[in-house]
Each structure stands twice: as structure tokens, then as C-alpha cells.
């Protein structure tokens, strides 16, 4: 393992970034659980927060995804984004009490994640809590990914790569459903999505085209069974880097009602209500960064208001 220290020159909170509901593929490790570990592009990666802007990193190789380690960290954690200035200029004036809560969440960073992993992960996330989502994703990796073992900090650690599209497409549906909380429909939808990806019918490079309007991108993703508006927006935000995508779930609906006095938030979250709330959020936040700001608000709501500790 190669050890490096990276001064990213930007404030970052690794725990909030990795455990805020945007990824379920990171785990805590080390004798004091002070390292975060995962496999990215077949490369072991261990991260430790040293200070607000310094990270210790252990990897197998000198590069990840064809980038040197510093470039990869900047790319993966979207460090080019000035998170302290993504809210509109008048936000602090219009929402002074909420603004008092937000500075502690500016070091939260949206991750640029693998498209396929993101798509399948959020297809697992429909209508359930984060603990169960993490359990399903872990089971998928353990049953269909590649197991790798490494000695780290004097302890053998087993990590599993995320399954390939081909492996999930070929999986027996009954066995696959054991990884989806015995939800046979969800297992079938994951199998179909994996097959579509493997056959090139879902093309992430084409979907990365910034000229595609968000509404059109959402509709393209929703063609696939098991992907609705919310999951499509999660895939766009976390898997395609579309920071304008604004996923809306129960927590987001609640904070839109309480913090922004949305009367629409009193309605049930139907597709029509979803689109109205989406438009309302864009009128409050910077449209191009609505999803980035929205995820900060989501994590702030869950921690500060709901007092939740499972991420």
C-alpha cells in the first residue's frame, strides 16, 4: 500500500460526504475506525481526515481512474465547487434561522460516482431507510462482486468490488431477490437495468451530454422499470454530475414545508406533486446547483431536526 498526504486547500468533511445518503459503498476501518475504505476502479482506497483540508490516503497504485491521486481526490469530491457560495445571494436574508445551521455543512461534498453503481444502488433505495439500503448494497457486493483481502493497520480486511453489469444481468432472480430484501420486483428491475447497460442500451457517456435538459434526462432514465423521478434525479446528481438535479423524498418534502413554507409539501408525493416541488425548489435555490444545495439541506435536516444517526 502506498501512503500519501494530500492538502486539498478546501474544507472537507469526509464523514458527512461519505455517510450522507449519496453512497453506500464506503465503510469505516482501522483500529479506531478512523479510516474510510472502499474499492474504486479495482483499487483499494483508505482515507483518513487529518484536518479540515488535509487527507491521509493509502492506495495500491499511484493513480485511480487514470488520474494521479491528488487529481482523483479533487475530481471525486468535486473540490472545484465553492460550497460556501452555492446558495443565492439573498438566501441569508430570507432564511436567517436556517442559515445559522448551514455553515457546518459547507464541507459536505457531492461525490462523482460510477454511473452503474449509482443506478443500481438507488434502485435498491426506493422507499426504505439507509440502514436497509446499505444492507442490500453490501449483500449485492458480497454475492456478486469480487472479494479481495488486504492487511491494513495490522488487520486483514475483506472488501468487495461492486458487481459488474454482466454478473447482475446473469444472476438467478430468486437468489438476487435475497439481496433486495426479498423484493422480487426490485430484483427483476435490477436485472433488466444491468442487462440494458451491458448491451449498451443505457449509455452513460451519451447521458453525460450537458445539452440534454434535465427533464429530458429524467424521462430517459424513467423508461427503465424501477426508476421513477426521485431515483432518476439521484442517478443524475450522484452518477452523472448533474448538480441541477434535485431528488425529492419524504425528508426533502418535509424540509420544503417547514423551512420554506411550501403548501405543496402538504400533499402526497405523487409525480405531479414532485414536479411542482421541484419547480418551487428551483425558485428558492440557484437552479444550476439546486441538487448540490439540496443535499446539504437534506443532511442538515436529518441531523439537526430529525436527530437521525443512521447514514
What does this structure look like?
This protein has 311 residues and is of the alpha+beta class. It has helices spanning 14-18, 69-76, 91-94, 96-101, 115-123, 130-144, 165-169, 173-177, 184-198, 204-207, 214-222, 229-239, 250-260, 271-284, 290-305, and strands at 2-7, 27-29, 35-40, 43-51, 54-59, 63-64, 67-68, 147-152, 155-160. It has a five-stranded antiparallel β-sheet with strand order 1-5-4-3-2. Strand 4 and strand 5 form a beta hairpin. Helix 5 (115-123) runs antiparallel to helix 9, helix 5 (115-123) runs antiparallel to helix 12 (229-239) and helix 11 packs across helix 12. The radius of gyration is 19 Å and the shape is globular. The mean pLDDT is 94.
Please state the structural category: alpha+beta
Q: Could you tell me the strand content as a percent range?
A: 5-15%
* CATH topology descriptor of the largest domain: Endonuclease III, domain 1
Helical residues, percent? 40-55%
Distance between the termini: 28 Å
| Tally of DSSP β-strands | 9
Number of DSSP helical runs: 15
The name of the CATH superfamily of the largest domain reads: Hypothetical protein, domain 2
For the sheet with most strands, the description reads: 5 strands, antiparallel
Poorly predicted runs are none
Global shape? globular
Order of helices and strands: EHEEEEEEHHHHHEEHHHHHHHHH
Count the domains: 3
CATH class of the largest domain reads: Mainly Alpha
Query: Mean pLDDT score, rounded?
Result: 94
Which radius of gyration do the C-alpha atoms yield? 19 Å
CATH architecture type of the largest domain: Orthogonal Bundle
Strands of the largest sheet, in order across it?
A: 1-5-4-3-2
Amino acid at each position: 500500500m502506498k501512503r500519501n498526504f494530500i492538502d486539498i486547500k478546501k474544507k472537507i468533511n469526509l464523514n458527512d460526504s461519505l455517510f450522507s445518503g449519496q453512497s453506500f459503498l464506503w465503510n469505516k476501518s482501522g483500529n479506531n475506525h478512523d479510516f474510510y475504505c472502499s474499492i474504486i476502479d479495482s483499487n483499494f482506497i483508505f482515507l483518513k481526515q487529518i484536518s479540515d483540508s488535509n487527507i491521509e490516503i493509502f492506495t495500491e497504485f499511484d493513480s485511480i481512474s487514470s488520474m494521479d491521486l491528488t487529481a482523483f481526490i479533487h475530481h471525486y469530491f468535486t473540490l472545484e465547487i465553492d460550497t460556501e457560495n452555492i446558495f443565492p445571494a439573498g438566501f441569508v436574508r430570507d432564511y436567517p434561522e436556517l442559515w445559522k445551521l448551514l455553515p457546518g455543512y459547507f464541507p459536505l461534498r457531492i461525490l462523482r460516482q460510477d454511473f452503474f453503481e449509482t443506478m443500481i444502488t438507488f434502485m435498491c433505495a426506493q422507499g426504505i431507510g439507509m440502514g436497509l439500503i446499505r444492507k442490500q448494497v453490501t449483500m449485492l457486493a458480497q454475492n456478486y462482486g469480487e472479494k479481495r483481502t488486504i492487511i491494513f493497520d495490522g488487520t486483514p480486511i475483506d472488501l468487495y468490488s461492486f458487481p459488474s453489469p454482466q454478473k447482475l444481468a446473469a444472476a438467478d432472480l430468486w437468489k438476487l431477490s435475497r439481496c433486495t430484501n426479498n423484493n422480487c420486483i426490485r430484483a427483476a428491475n435490477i436485472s433488466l437495468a444491468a442487462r440494458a447497460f451491458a448491451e449498451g442500451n443505457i449509455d452513460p457517456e451519451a447521458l453525460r451530454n450537458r445539452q440534454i435538459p434535465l427533464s429530458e434526462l429524467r424521462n430517459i432514465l424513467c423508461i427503465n422499470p424501477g426508476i421513477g423521478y426521485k431515483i432518476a434525479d439521484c442517478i443524475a446528481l450522484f452518477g452523472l454530475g448533474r448538480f441541477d438535479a434535485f431528488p425529492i423524498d419524504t425528508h426533502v418534502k418535509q424540509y420544503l414545508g417547514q423551512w420554506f413554507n411550501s403548501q405543496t409539501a402538504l400533499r402526497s408525493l405523487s409525480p405531479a406533486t414532485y414536479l411542482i416541488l421541484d419547480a418551487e425548489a428551483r425558485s428558492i435555490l440557484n437552479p444550476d446547483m439546486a441538487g448540490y444545495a439540496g443535499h446539504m439541506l437534506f443532511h442538515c435536516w436529518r441531523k439537526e431536526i430529525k436527530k437521525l444517526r443512521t447514514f
